[in-house]
Design a protein that fits this description.
42% helix, 15% strand
Length: 240
């Protein structure tokens, strides 16, 4: 079993396209573990990209919503979440995102106060998160899911912090530390995503478990909508 697990992780490592620094983070490790588990569970071809060009997003939206006008972004503008974009592919090579992940660490006021320094203003990381979430929701408008998950930790996210209210607002007032993948509401109005925030840092194992859950729910959604046979199988078996 240990050898099989190692081979799966090695296979996943060839898929994950992150910088060396990102790979060494807890999220990078969790993403590798989750990719290995999803390969084992579903046997689909997985592809990972660090960024998604805004021009590609607008191109897909223009094709799906021809009656709507769209802004033309600059050629190199992109979304670049910390964990990038993990997708499955159909038989024609079209990619379907199953996992978009990010980490936010905010809050050093406990250390500053201990050093006799003044507290700093809160909220910078959350304002940046809001912009990214808007982009992800727009990119996924052609589907009925938002496979986005953000892990936040730091003293600013302690119980009772007003910053958690800002996070909940970005989450369309969904519960924090709960998984939301498939859009909710009678007309699928609530395309929330999942937001896991607390003071303590998230461990690699905790993140991996959540990432597998989000990725698995996304794949089941696509199976229900398009059929399992619509998607390409992995060409290399990660098991011996």
């Amino acid at each position: 079993m240990a050898e099989k697990h190692r081979l799966r992780l090695n296979r996943a490592g060839t898929i994950i396209n992150l910088t060396s620094r990102q790979q060494e983070t807890a999220l990078g490790g969790a993403l590798t573990v989750a990719t290995a588990e999803l390969l084992d569970q579903f046997g689909l071809e997985l592809v990972h990209k660090k960024r998604w060009l805004l021009s590609d997003i607008v191109g897909r939206l223009s094709a799906d919503f021809p009656e709507v006008d769209f802004y033309t972004p600059s050629a190199q503008a992109s979304m670049n979440p910390d964990g990038g974009f993990l997708s499955i592919k159909d038989q024609d090579g079209i990619e379907y995102p199953i996992l978009i992940s990010e980490v936010k660490n905010q809050g050093t006021n406990d250390l500053r106060l201990a050093e006799g320094k003044k507290a700093q203003a809160k909220g910078n990381a959350i304002e940046r998160l809001g912009k990214n979430v808007i982009g992800v929701r727009a990119a996924m408008l052609s589907e009925g899911i938002v496979p986005f998950v953000c892990f936040g930790f730091g003293v600013d996210f302690a119980d009772g912090s007003s910053i958690l209210d800002r996070v909940a607002t970005i989450a369309m007032f969904g519960e924090l530390n709960e998984i939301y993948v498939v859009n909710g509401g009678s007309q699928e109005q609530f395309n929330r995503g999942s937001f896991f925030f607390r003071q303590a840092e998230w461990t690699e194992a905790e993140m991996a478990q959540i990432l597998v859950d989000v990725g698995g729910r996304s794949i089941h959604y696509y199976f229900a909508k398009y059929g399992e046979g619509h998607f390409a199988k992995q060409t290399i078996d990660p098991s011996p």
